[in-house]
Amino acid sequence: MTDKADIPLFPMPRAAGCPFDPPPELTRLADRAPVSRVRLWDGSTPWLVTRYEDVRAVLADPRISVDATRPGFPHTNAVSKARDTRMKTLMQLDPPEHTAQRRLLTSEFTIKKMEALRPRIQQIVDDHIDAILAGPKPVDLVEALALPVPSRVICELLGVPYADREFFQGVARTLVMDQSDPEQAMAASEELNAYLEALAVTKNADMLGALAVDGAMTPREIAMLGQLLLVAGHDTTAAMIALGTIALLTRPDLRDGDDSAVVEELLRYLSITHTEARRVAREDLEIGGKLIRAGEGVIAVKSTANRDPSAFSDPGTLQVRNARHHVAFGYGRHLCLGAPLARVELQVVYGTLRRRMPTLALAIPPEELRYNENAIFYTVRELPVTW
């Protein structure tokens, strides 16, 4: 039997000088042991699934659960364990509860509705770029554009006052960082829940208030859902705006490509969810020729799936291609609800930067950029740019 000390520890560090690539150990496992064991912080040894078809199989299989309270669920750190076991949102619900709750929201995040928001998103992006162009050089693009744009968009969509952004962004930082204190993180989460519950009950929020009027969810359920949408709705897109901009600055030839195709390729190439998709088997099943028994944890690695040569030719190269079948947003019944919104935001941001700031460039050498690996979402901490 393999000694636990010989099992690789997950999550794994990325290689210095290769900020956009999956960790080398993940790539090695995808090549040599695509379904294998890894070791987590608590000593548990879930299965790691790394290839495209196997990852899609995991994400679509009804025999595999997202319920973080089930024994064997792979928690990647103490904060994630506290958060995922105490807050049951769409991400931690199996059918039929997941089906019922998602049905209430699906109509709010349709492609048609998100496209209707494009003019407003364009205005928000233009306002921030106006401020950047009128200000001093260099500027931190994270603080000046990547973070405020998705924050403002999701606030308007949910009906949350943007003036309170420092509060909920602070809670978000606490919840997504691996090294936070679990009790401190949950106290911050509870404070945000109380805030959102009050918004929903007083009918001062757009989407949240509409759910309260409908009566299909309790105020507390609405608050927890609102927290998921608020935190994930700005943090993920902010990470993609910053990382995608760096990638495009290294490949100016891609700036003239179709905005939609460029966005899909960046989503495939970057795959920002550092802790990947975590599940637990409800019953025995086989994935990639390996028997996974009921109660064993499973981590589906989207970053290596999106670099699988069986699904994408020359996957380590950033190029405009048909990459729409990537799994950056997941797959199956838990496909990211906000994917249509994220796509519109990214298309508008990258396209507007290309048109309005054609001479945009890094203000420091690329090797001096600092990346944040101790979080759910991989991103750059600061992005000093000039033009």
TrEMBL record:
It comes from the Bacteria. Keywords: Heme, Iron, Metal-binding, Monooxygenase, Oxidoreductase. It holds the Pfam family p450. Pathway: Antibiotic biosynthesis; vancomycin biosynthesis. Gene3D superfamilies: Cytochrome P450. SUPFAM superfamilies: Cytochrome P450. GO terms for molecular function: heme binding; iron ion binding; monooxygenase activity; oxidoreductase activity, acting on paired donors, with incorporation or reduction of molecular oxygen. Belongs to the cytochrome P450 family. Involved in the coupling of aromatic side chains of the heptapeptide of vancomycin. This is Cytochrome. It comes from Amycolatopsis coloradensis.
